[in-house]
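A reminder from the course coordinator: this example appears on the midterm review sheet, so study it carefully.

Given structure:
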């Protein structure tokens, strides 16, 4: 029986620029950044305290301005109500979502194939694809793995439009056809392909694919900040950032 390991190595948010910064700062300084992700409540308060330190505001000062005693709430080992969290967000001028860090950080997650969630796409009535979700974790929301079974032998209109980098491998024993932005091609068994984000595409001819999706740098905070820029200024930013020989 033939066994294969398909590996896709990437650094996610801890890229070279980040590593260069923490190397320059050194271990003793960098370790103080760490949020305690032991459990949901501990992670919440560790994260909140980080933001208060960054704003140079104490819990006592916050109580003076809002009449909310965060020291008391923390001692009760509770997470504040939504109303209080909104006041913290407003007072510190933060996004609401930034006050909720991840927790349950497993170093290794093993998921049995038989327990994987699956669904038909685009619907139960029109079954062109069968998606099977592989081992994904909430700490990497833009990193997704799927086994995709192609159920339609003929060309169809169930296009996929995905805001992620996609690395795709033909797991099956049959040739698979694809169309990407109007351009046709095919994947023989054991062939692979990379598809840029936001490129409309379909696969057809019955077969099976392994799909790995990565958000790259344009996800999370980078995506939110990008969304604040007008299309005119975005184009100018991209053009200005290109080398002179590539314009």
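Designed residues:
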């Amino acid at each position: 029986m033939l066994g294969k390991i398909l590996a896709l190595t990437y650094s996610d948010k801890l890229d070279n620029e980040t590593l260069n910064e923490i190397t320059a700062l050194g271990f003793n300084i960098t370790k103080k950044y760490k949020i305690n992700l032991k459990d949901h409540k501990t992670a919440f308060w560790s994260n909140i305290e980080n933001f208060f330190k960054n704003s140079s505001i104490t819990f006592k000062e916050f109580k003076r301005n809002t009449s909310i005693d965060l020291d008391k709430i923390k001692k009760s080992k509770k997470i504040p109500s939504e109303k209080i969290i909104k006041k913290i967000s407003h007072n510190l001028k933060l996004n609401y979502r930034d006050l909720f860090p991840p927790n349950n950080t497993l170093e290794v997650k093993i998921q049995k194939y038989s327990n994987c969630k699956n669904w038909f796409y685009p619907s139960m009535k029109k079954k062109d694809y069968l998606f099977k979700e592989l081992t994904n974790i909430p700490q990497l929301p833009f990193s997704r793995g799927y086994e995709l079974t192609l159920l339609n032998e003929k060309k169809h209109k169930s296009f996929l439009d995905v805001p992620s980098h996609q690395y795709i491998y033909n797991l099956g024993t049959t040739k698979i056809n694809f169309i990407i932005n109007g351009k046709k091609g095919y994947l023989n068994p054991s062939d692979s392909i990379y598809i840029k984000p936001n490129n409309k595409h379909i696969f057809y001819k019955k077969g099976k694919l392994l799909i790995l999706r990565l958000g790259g740098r344009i996800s999370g905070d980078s995506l939110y900040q990008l969304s604040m820029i007008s299309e005119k200024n975005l184009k100018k930013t991209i053009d200005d950032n290109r080398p002179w020989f590539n314009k």
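The chain is about 30% helix and 20% strand. The beta strands are 118-122, 127-133, 144-150, 165-170, 176-180, 183-187, 192-195, 201-204, 207-214.
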